[in-house]
Amino acid sequence: MDHNRRARLLYKEGKHQQSAEHFRAWLQRNPADVHAQHDLSASLFALGDLEAAEEAAKHAATIDPNYAKAWVTLATIQAARGQLGTPLTSMLAATRIDPENLHYRVRLGTMLLDQNQLEHAVQIFDGVLKKTPNHIDAIGGLATVLERQGKLNEAHDLMEPHVHTVPVHARLGATWGTVSRRLGQYQRGVDVLVRMLAHKVSPIAQAMMLAELGALYDKMNQTDAAFAAYTEANLRRQGTWDPVRLEKWVDRMIETFSAELFQTAPRGANHSQRPILIVGMPRSGTSLVEQILAAHPEVHGAGELEDMRVTSLFAEARSGTSFPECISTLSPALTTQLGAWYLDRRVNNAPTHRWVTDKMPQNFQFIGLATLLMPGVNIVHCVRDPMDTILSCYFQGFKAALAWSNRLEWLGPYCVQYRRLMAHWESVLPQTIHHVQYESLVADPDATIRALLAHCGIEFDPAVLAHHTNDRRIVTASYAQANRPIYQSSTGKAVPYAKHLASVRSLLETP
After folding, report:
1. Which of 54, 93, 201, 399 is the most buried (most CB within 10 A)?
2. Fold of 243-509
3. What is the CA radius of gyration of the chain?
């Protein structure tokens, strides 16, 4: 049996590591075999090696740009890695190659949904349903759009004729659970999900349904069942994370961005206060803070942007030295040029607004870079009770880019390094970081919001106190919460789960 056939057999048996090895052996002698190259990406994806899987899928699409399946797989991998824009581009390529493939069109609709392009997603799903009225994938996708739009009864009525007859469908089941939860019909959601989970489905499908089952149990105050469901969901998620690698990265950041560096390094020439970086742990209130600021008529909320990370890559490329060490070699001209690139993009985001927010929580890693390149930048740091934050991250089910959130043994070390780096910025930055404590925000929103605006140099406008009436859409996991009036039910959320979080609390309390 040759390597190719052996690889396919091993893949079917779930032996993905061995399958990948045989595919690679086959491709050494048959590098133009687009099917083997594609199937190698599938094996690597199953292993959780998403970076290598993406490269393999890209290679397959390069070998034969008209091989639609390669583009679909590439889109799936890119989405799993949490990329923005690229999954949609890859999926569009597949639908152009095979425009009559309804499966591809549904996938395109799902990608549009993930990018919060809801109207376009509706058009795709409606188009599929006109051709095949009972297309269950399109029904599940359209129901999810309706739920995102707050049309809960419409979503319920769309799913009702199907949810009790379809043996298992992850999107349909999870959305039914979400709608049932938001309508307060918890047991109805649990019944359907428990039934569907009795069927054999992929780990990704299991994770989707288990997470919603956990959310329902949480609403029913069945904390042990909720934590168990979320844990099972996280165990089925893809992605790996190395705590030692992050610790070494933070070591390098602290060593490079010293107090001396900020005294001697060149600063960008443009002191514009237009950009507002909103940073912090995910689920710490960053989406809420951005929504509040974006309700102001002079502030544009740009959402989660990759631009600071890209700026660090530009610095690396232009200097020929790795980031962050390259920072000590930047010339005044290059420092100004890099800052101008970021600032120009904010002008392009919103040419008529005086301020533009960039709500990428992970930008806490690039605060030092931002203050060097743009001395006028506003830094807003969102802080929430650490155990509430950790529990919320653990329950959220982020994609592979935030894989650290899917294991308690990773979550603790990540939080330790985040706090360590933020403490360093506090000690060395020449400007003030404004902290927004989530608990203070929900307890006294007026005073907290006024202090936030004052820090950014923004005059008070009553619209910020009615942020929930803003029709701006939120793409992140907080879409349902940040579009509501401020509420206090999320404070103290971790208290009933204390026994499950004891190991993380112990780590965070260690001096």
Report:
1. 54
2. Rossmann fold (3.40.50)
3. 24
Q: Please identify which residue in the block is written with the tokens 């309700």.
A: 295
Q: Which of 267, 442, 289 is nearest to 357 (CA)?
A: 289
Residue 341's contacts (CB-CB under 8 Å, 6 or more residues apart) are: 311, 314
Length of the chain: 511
For position 182, what pLDDT does the model report? 97
**Tokens describing residue 96:** 């152009």
Report pLDDT digits (tens) over 267-303: 999 999 999 999 999 999 999 999 999 999 999 999 9
Q: What is the pLDDT of residue 82?
A: 74
Asked whether the beta carbons of 192 and 169 are under 8 A apart, the reply is no
- Each domain of the chain, given as residue ranges in start order, spans 3-235, 243-509
Helix axes 203-219, 186-197, angle to 10 degrees: 150
Distance CA 484, CA 437 (A): 18
Residue 449, both tokens: 């919001």
Query: Any bridge partners for residue 299, and if so which?
Result: 355
**pLDDT confidence of residue 172:** 97
Check residue 464 and give its pLDDT.
94
Residue 186: pLDDT band (50, 70, 90) is very high
Cβ-Cβ contacts under 8 Å for 506 (sequence gap 6 or more) = none
Angle made by CA atoms 470, 491, 113, in degrees to the nearest 5: 45
At CB < 8 A and 24+ separation, what contacts does 419-422 make?
419/508, 420/250, 420/254, 421/250, 421/253, 421/254, 421/364, 421/365, 422/364, 422/381
Both tokens assigned to 78: 């890119």
Helix/strand/coil percent split, the chain, to 5: 70, 5, 30
Q: What is the 3-state secondary structure (H, E, C) of 422-491?
A: HHHHHHHCCCCCEEEEHHHHHHCHHHHHHHHHHHHCCCCCHHHHHHHHCCCCCCCCCHHHHCCCCCCCCC
What tokens appear for 265 in the block? 């390094």
**pTM for the full predicted model:** 0.83
How far apart (Å, rounded) are the C-alpha atoms in residues 89 and 153? 33
Q: Which CATH superfamily is domain 3-235 in?
A: Tetratricopeptide repeat domain (1.25.40.10)
pLDDT at residue number 482:
47
pLDDT of 327 over the 60 cut: yes
Tokens standing for residue 271: 């002191």
Mean pLDDT for 351-363 is 95
Rounded CA-CA distance 509/511 in Å is 6
**Using 50, 70 and 90 to split pLDDT, how confident is the model at 342?**
very high
pLDDT for residue 52: 93
